[in-house]
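Bench notes, afternoon.
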Amino acid sequence: MAPWLPLALLTALCLAFYNFFIKLASGHVAPAVGAVVLQLVAAALGAAWLFRLKLQGQPITLTKAGLGLAVLAGLGVGLAEILTFVVFQRGVPSSVGTPVIVGGSVLLTALLGLGLLRESLSLAQAGGLLCIVVGIALLARGQ
């Protein structure tokens, strides 16, 4: 087993909880409020992790490019969170909305990697992306 796979699967579990709880919260809070609360909690968790690393004496890398790219990622995730609340407020089931959003994200990220970063895919990996496209089309079809 690849050494990164268990951590990636744990990350997937965390993202599953993230999407599930956004779905549950979407009927009880305005999208902007939900996104702000979510980000405040995430920022507090990140700050605690950073503080822990600092206490352990681990080096904290910070470059202008890294900071700028993190800001762009923050803009993307902030907008994605607000829009996810809006999607779920419109009554889309979690079992449909989440796979379309996450699958679409995976597909678009792969295309960005291929086009801008000049990454490559094996035939099997390209087939996997094609399955995502077909899956998104089938899921969205009934809605």
